[in-house]
Amino acid sequence: MRLQLILPLAVLLFSTPAPDGGTAVVYTCTTRATGETQTVKIDLTLTVPATAAVGKQFTIGWRGSYVAGAELRAPATGLDGEVKLYAYASVTGIDRLTSATGVGRPGTIVPGAVIPLPGSVVDVKTTPRHPGTGTVRPAAVNFGPTPQKPLIECDPQDKEALTSYPLTVTGTGDDTETTPSPDTTDTASTPPEPDSPTKTPAALPTGGADTGGGGETGPDGRVLVAAGALTLAAALTGLRLRRRADGTGSPALPGQEGS
Question: Is the pTM of this model over 0.70?
Answer without folding.
Answer: no
